[in-house]
Amino acid sequence: MTIAYLVNHYPKVSHSFIRREILGLEEAGVQVRRFTLRPPDADLPDPQDQAEAGKTEVVLGQGAIRLLLATFGQLLSHPGRWFKAFRVAVAMGQGAPARILRQMAYLVEACWLAGRMEGVQHLHAHFGTNPAAVARLTHILSGVPYSFTVHGPEEFDGPLMLDLPGKIADARYAVAISSFGRSQLMRWTDPREWGKLLVVRCGVDAIFAKAAPQPLCEAPLLSCVARLSAQKGLPLLIEAAALLKRRGVDFRLTVVGDGEMRREIEQAIASNGLQDRVVITGYLSAEGVRAAVAASRAMVLPSFAEGLPVVIMEALALRTPVIVTQIAGTPELVDSQCGWLIPAGAIEPLADAMEAALAAPPETLRAMGEIGRARVLAQHDALHNARALGEAVGVL
């Protein structure tokens, strides 16, 4: 069986969980064809992502002429399907000229993609935003059934603007990565169709499952692995670090990641006099990320909005407790046995949890890490979850 995968931007540093899902399907015997709407990152640090880039077809990389030729080709060869897709695209624009124009661009992309569906039994998109829109239109044009995985929080912030109900109605299945995510899809779905709403959790790489215990951490080290964007709450983390400094707590914090807020966060570090305590490494290879997390007493992620961050699973799989906000699907994995759940947007509880992790005996942290690791191995095995997805959409 052959399945096509469609992502907005792939491979990408923060999308390694999609790579693991694809490789899990291939290990199960499914042929996977990879498509990305936009080109992959140019400076991928991970060799596995670099290899994926060579296997992935870029829709927008075809150029305007080829995309327009594909559009006219679909119109001439399947006018009924084309006009139905056109009407759906207009409807997804919801009467706003700018949104309708954007949907017309998705229709052009779908026309090219529909021509690449020969031999494909199913199309699966990741994210309920533009990839799901293009997959929906491709389904109408080609007849190939589709499904899509919703991660959040973007889909949960604007479900009607994204026409999430229409996308779910036309899909064979809609997949959430947590029970919380499924509940958000249920809000916009007729109860008679709740059976098409699935939970398939993201999986961690096999290297995490095989990770050997590291020496117990005696040093006052904390880590944070995150895209430097507004939803991750990094300015709050810097404020909490400044509060720890005022309390006289000895600590070092390594922030692994990059993004649009890096300059702002660096300025906050400097204005709080934390240059000798907080370091931003930028993006690291997978090996570098693992080393930073495994060397720390706890991994901190003070997000304001999430689905269920993969980095939490990865940290726990490395036996590192986590300090995370009590939002979305996070409490389905984390509790006081393997970390600290804190209110989102609260500085003092965040600083208190960081101080508690810094003061905890290494043996306590290791016991918490072992509990978290057991949960991850039980719930977030990449191969098992990829098989579950393959079975659900009918390619296994």
Short description:
With 396 residues, the chain is α/β, with parallel strands linked by helices. The chain has helices at 16-27, 47-53, 64-77, 79-93, 97-114, 130-142, 154-157, 164-170, 179-186, 206-209, 234-247, 262-271, 286-294, 310-317, 347-359, 362-379, 382-393, and strands at residues 2-9, 31-38, 56-58, 122-126, 146-150, 173-176, 197-199, 221-225, 252-256, 278-282, 298-301, 322-325, 339-342.
Strand content: 15-25%
Total count of strands: 13
How many H/I helical runs?
17
Task: Report the radius of gyration as a whole number of Å.
Answer: 22 Å
General form: elongated
Question: Key terms for this structure?
Answer:
396 residues, 13 strands, alpha/beta, 16% strand
Structural write-up:
The protein has 396 residues and is of the alpha/beta class. It is 47% helix and 16% strand. The protein contains 17 helices and 13 strands. A 7-stranded parallel sheet has the order 3-2-1-4-5-6-7, with helices on both faces. A 6-stranded parallel sheet has the order 10-9-8-11-12-13, sandwiched between helices. α2 links the parallel β2 and β3. α4 runs antiparallel to α6, α5 crosses α6 and α11 runs parallel beside α12. The model has no long low-confidence stretch (mean pLDDT 95).
Topology record:
Blueprint: E1 2-9, H1 16-27, E2 31-38, H2 47-53, E3 56-58, H3 64-77, H4 79-93, H5 97-114, E4 122-126, H6 130-142, E5 146-150, H7 154-157, H8 164-170, E6 173-176, H9 179-186, E7 197-199, H10 206-209, E8 221-225, H11 234-247, E9 252-256, H12 262-271, E10 278-282, H13 286-294, E11 298-301, H14 310-317, E12 322-325, E13 339-342, H15 347-359, H16 362-379, H17 382-393
